[in-house]
Amino acid sequence: MFVQVIQGQVTDAEQAHAAMDRWMEELAPEATGWLGTTAGVTADGRFIALARFESADAARRNSESAAQDKWWHEFSALLSNGATFRDTEDVTPGMFGDPDAAGFVQVIRGRASNPARVRELMQMDPADWVAFRPEVIGSIFSLFDDGRFATTFYFTSEAAARDGERKEPPAELKALVDELDSLDAEPPEFFDLTSPWLYSPAST
Question: Going from the N-terminus, what domains does the chain have, and what CATH number goes with each?
Fold first, then answer.
């Protein structure tokens, strides 16, 4: 899987949402190899999108189309300071339900002091986590070349996610969380998407 993370400060969330809906209606049917997009705007106007493709080649072919170029030119006008892009094929998905049914999405962006160890921890058997946090219906861990990462969690609802955050994990899971926290090379940035925009080929 290939993931592209796009980030920027949006000037009008409703217009951005309408533009994403238009992409889904007009461009998605021709986007060969596109697996889905998770996007949204935080309460303070930060836009983030994670576009998933079968491969980097599929993403490149999509970006090179004239229709995509035109759409992006119009969409980027809604970003006050342009956009940043990060691409990777170092992706660890974990799907325990239907992420397209998520009522709340949280994206955590940061940088790892030991990327290989973080990847190893994220690839561990999720059965204990699923039992402990049943409101988590999916996750995608994307690791970039410079040690930066984006972890996306899909929840049934924000209320359920907040309730889950307050639960005390069993010792084994707490040790895992503590180790992950110790591998943060800088404070992580959180994107809480209370009204996530979820797109997939199944909804075209």
Answer: 2-89+196-203 (3.30.70.100), 91-193 (3.30.70.100)
